[in-house]
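quick one, 605 residues, struct below
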Amino acid sequence: MKKAFKFIFLIFFTIMMISPVIAQDQERSLALQYYQNEDYERAAEIFERLYDKEPGSNFLYRYLFNSYILLKDYEKAEKLTQRNIRRNRNELNFIVDLGYVYIQSGQSDKAKSQFDRALNALTADERQIRSLANSFNGIREYSYAAETYIKGKELLNDDKRFNFEIAGIYLRKDNFSKSISFYLEHLRHNPNQIQQLKNTLQFRLEEENLSRELRQQLFGKIQQHPQQLVFSDMLVWLLIQNKDFSAAFRQVRAIDRRLNEDGKRVLELAQAASAEEHYETAIEAFQYVIDKGRDFRHYRSARMGLLSAMKDKLISSLDYTSEDVEKLDEAYAEYLQTFGTNRNTISTVLERSEIHAKYLYDLDRAVNMLEEVKKLPGIDQQTEASIKLQLGDYYVMRGNVWDASLLYSQVEKTMRNNPMIEEARFKNAKLSYFRGDFEWAQTQLKVLKSATSNFISNDAIELYVFIRDHLALDTTDTPIRMYAEAELLHLQNRNEESIAQLNLINEVFPNHSLAPDIALKIADIKISQREYDNAMQQLEYVVMNYPEFVKVDKALFQLGYVAENYAKNREKALEWYEELIINHYGSIYVVEARKRFRSLRGDFN
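---
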């Protein structure tokens, strides 16, 4: 009986002990709910009761203080902070809070007095220094935050401390001169944190003043500390971000020579320049690595990169001759003769086969190259899939559509969980479209609309919408069927037949909804034939007569590109790119157009 009584008493005692805790938690939750619902008056009433019971709670203090500020009850806020200042003389944050009360109540002189008071009370305690600086940052008193860190450096007698934090404050205030100065001083003592600094500055580099200041100070640091490569590395990164590959090449070449390196830095710069279509610099940089000699480990990579840059430069120039293409092919042949046709040179064979298929119009030779390389032993599955996809394209060009479909289907089956499967499916969907099997093409394209590759997804969506819209508008599928046949003829380099087919659509179906598509396709053909004046006429016809056309952004981009690279009409190119950027800001061509616009305008000089 006694045991039972003791047990009951224990339960009763426990309940009595935890009940106030539960009630207090419930009150805190209710106060927070009022606060979140912006009912600050009710929130403050509860926080006052809770804070009186638990005056050491910083959590309750902060919510009560904020409630008073939001209610503009500055008298209560002042009393609250003064009470905490008396209780916690080493916690300078409360002095900052008091200054903030005065700022909010329009007493700026009294606020300054409190901020100075906090700053003057600072001691050689890193935790206290950081806490006070964070308090100033929290109320956007950035100058005081910077002063706190600067005084902290003096108190701790450590010039290496807080440079990154001070730089961040000045960056927030757009004081680029001081910001960069402190960032680079931090980098001098912490070269391993270069990536952190790059990440910090990355999204502000488009601001011309910051970029210019960083460039000037880096040159100064390189002269002051020539042995610290971190500043040269930072400068090269900046020049690449600004697309100034020529200057970046001079820097990495100087580093390579000074340290007697193996050309790795220069090779990486060459690859970046080539990817950004700065082919002249890329070719010069690749050649620098090649000139080091065959004994250097990057020699072969540089030779491969040089060929690719030469090919891309030639194709993008728009005014190359057949002799230029033949000379390029000879360079590929010489490379393959030197290094042989093997697993290490397959990518070069693929590039050379493209030259024969698309620019020398020797499809048989292109097909033979790929059929031979496909027989090489030890090829990995991904490389084999790449060969099949490219070979399938050449079969389409040669008219062997079913053989092409078989190769695409093989890639679909073997490349599970690989982006190449989406490329193969898209190519098969296009074959269905070329054959006029629009229903099956749409079924395949519908799946590809959510493809992981943006390139495949965008193309799939475009073709899906194109088929859907034109089938819905017509009682017959004859016009779109004829258009698909014309596209296939163009793909097969039967350009005159393609143009004849497109013109026939206009004749048989005048004022058809396909008219702007037809003009755009004829422009594509004329560009491939390097009849740029005729191409621009077609593109201008689209822009002037079909401003609401879904592909007018493509027409604007092509106009800008041809004006820039063929007509060499800088002003006209700028005009077309600007119209695209301003009026079609959601277009997939805007990023490239903006890059070319800025380059033509001289933003990267």
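The domain at 478-601 is CATH 1.25.40.10 (Serine Threonine Protein Phosphatase 5, Tetratricopeptide repeat).
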